[in-house]
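Why do we care about 3D structure at all? Because function follows from shape, and shape follows, mostly, from sequence. That is the central idea of this module. The next example makes it concrete: a single protein chain, its amino acid sequence, and then its structure expressed as tokens.
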Amino acid sequence: MAIQPFDDRDGVIWYDGRLLPWRDARLHVLSHALHYASAVFEGERAYNGHIFKLSDHSRRLHDSAKVMGFAIPYSVEQIDAASRQVLAEMKFKDAYLRPIAWRGAEMMGVSAQSSKIHVAVACWEWPAYFSPEARLKGIRLDWAMYRRPDPATAPAKSKAAGLYMICTLSKHAAENKGYNDALMLDWRGRIAETTGANVFLVQDGKIHTPVPDCFLDGITRRTVIGLAKARKLEVVERPIMPEELKKTQEVFITGTAAEVTPIAEIGEHSFTPGAITRSLMDDYDLLVRTAPSAAAE
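And the structure:
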């Protein structure tokens, strides 16, 4: 089956304040972001025509840009409106949205103080990140080839394009070995996250999750913690070492794309999706698909 490239599709993309035909939304080869990764982005999901936690994502886009040393020339409210406009124009109900902001081509070099900041929002249909079969029985993770860096060496609190280079390399290596994804450690050897989702461990009825001090405290992560607490489940945020997998009964990941997905295998460790994972999967699916007011904001 041929893959439809992302630069050759029908539809529109919101680009610097106006809608452009999809194929016309282009940037110059000497844009600073292409050479120096000076870009920040978001990933959002729409369910039944409503964008889940939209303003949270737009605010985080602004926060990421500040960490990267630039200001986005559109307010949170304007980006919210642009996202809704693109979704409506594309006539999708269940979709993925990608807002992105980047430094343009006015300066070429490490310094780019005078570069124009561009912003775009694209939208496409994307019903599932992992196949329905994999999501039900749990996905397989390899150990990532790279680690999350010390926050003193990288802008860890920004959803910045450059931070995903090691994710792409690690995910490709895992896929080439037959795995779905890879679990990353941090620079201290602690469990951190997968290449695009936060991770949770269930041990004796309690939910444990790494402290997000060198990776993003995901919006879906916070949502699922809230759902767990609503069920009176104890959630413990703490440093977690890899050897703790031996005493772990369930593992699941959370993210805008992954939603809530159980883990069946991490390297040499095997797990069976259990009652806690399944209940949170159901709670999350119910929240995003049947509560438009919650999904919209």
